[in-house]
Design goal:
The protein is α+β, with helices and mostly antiparallel strands. It has 7 helices and 8 strands, in the order E-E-E-E-E-H-H-H-H-E-E-E-H-H-H. Helix 2 runs antiparallel to helix 3.
Length: 254
Amino acid sequence: MSDYNSQAIVLRSQVYREGDKLITAFCAQYGKQTLILKSGLKVKSKMAGHLDVGSIVDLEWATGNYFNVITGASAINNLKNIRTDLTKIIYLNSVVASLDKLIIEKEPNQKIYELTFEFINLLNEVENSFEIEMIYQSWWWQVLVELGFLPNLVNCYRCGQSLNSEAEIVFDFEVGSLGHQRCLPTKINCKLYKKEEIKLLKLLLEKSMDFWKSKKIKPELIQKGREMLQNFVAFRDLDFNQKMFARKVDVELD
């Protein structure tokens, strides 16, 4: 008998005692849950095959003594285009591992769930490495905004004046804001970017992930987008290891 049911994304799977598995799932209604799958290591387990990391499932569970117990699981999408593509697997694993670190246990966040659901389905659909990388960057920025980390891209945070006439703009990653080159001292946490590079960042914040399908973006611009993302995250107060970012497939992006 099940006490709870929810659509969920599997974030982590690990061995627990003899024959059992611990499954960490991000549930649409209940947030991140750590659940036990009884006999999950056995070859004959009917549910284990539906609970691979990154899977989107209909999940049911019952109240247990220490961990709640999974009573039912069925895959919503088999993600066959991801499971057979190493590049896509790298990106999927990065997103679910990052999410596992970024969200708090048992705290629902419908918006982040929907963003991740959309990311996984788009990743399963698109083929081009440029599209995959831009959808990934878009997911990251939208999740950061949902967590309260919105960069200031409007005016110089020192003088308050517009940045529209500037050919090159400084991004202070520690502060999380843009500024005039003349206003900001040279610091390790500041980098200079061209206007088109900042425009890309604004689009990443404004547009949905679907926007990046079939968009032709210069490889060097994509690399600058990733640089801005990783530097911004590095200065935020997040329990996150930079090694968890998806490895860029440089050969395909060149």
